[in-house]
Amino acid sequence: SAVISQKPSRDICQRGTSLTIQCQVDSQVTMMFWYRQQPGQSLTLIATANQGSEATYESGFVIDKFPISRPNLTFSTLTVSNMSPEDSSIYLCSVHQQGSGGYTFGSGTRLTVV
Amino acid sequence: DAKTTQPPSMDCAEGRAANLPCNHSTISGNEYVYWYRQIHSQGPQYIIHGLKNNETNEMASLIITEDRKSSTLILPHATLRDTAVYYCIVREGIGNNNDMRFGAGTRLTVKP
Known about the structure:
Strand content of chain B: over 45%
Strand order of the largest sheet of chain B: 1-9-8-3-4
Order of helices and strands of chain B: EEEEEEEEE
Shape of chain B: globular
Number of strands of chain A: 11
Oligomer: heterodimer
Order of helices and strands of chain A: EEEEEEEEEEE
Helix content of chain A: under 10%
Largest interface: A-B, 26 and 25 residues
């Protein structure tokens, strides 16, 4: 199964700043998915990132706030821009797990905005 | 609208079977049932999936009713390390271009 390396694992940021989260996969994948998990809540899909095209965002999420890059088939970044305390969450990336039908998730980035 | 309904929490004694129910009464013919779990402070972990037949792997068994409107995830011998939130997800197909949509899940607590 795919192995995802997600960085940073956690960060504390000042409001108004931006943080870029990286996901590196050990195999080539078509789609990468970015999720947000607010404190005590389930996961919410932010966007789907396909290599070579703009990401597709879910309702309530916009590119200006969460720009995504997908420069190749093994890497993607999510930036949380102009952060406010409401952005304090865990952010996770995910890819399809070849051979099993399931999806593999990164270990997440725990973001605290102060 | 939520596609699945799960109890918010359940307890299970260590060593006993944990049976986690999921209702998906509006499931369509090409939708699969997936189960994931999320142990505290970790990313979700894939457990198992099925279409209409019962499935078993090294982690769990999945029992899907004949009408496919509900299913049960069975952990045959629960351990303390199985304490987690378990998510039942209904999703079309098994290709890699469709995302997973998470509901609230069931918080399973395995007690000694």
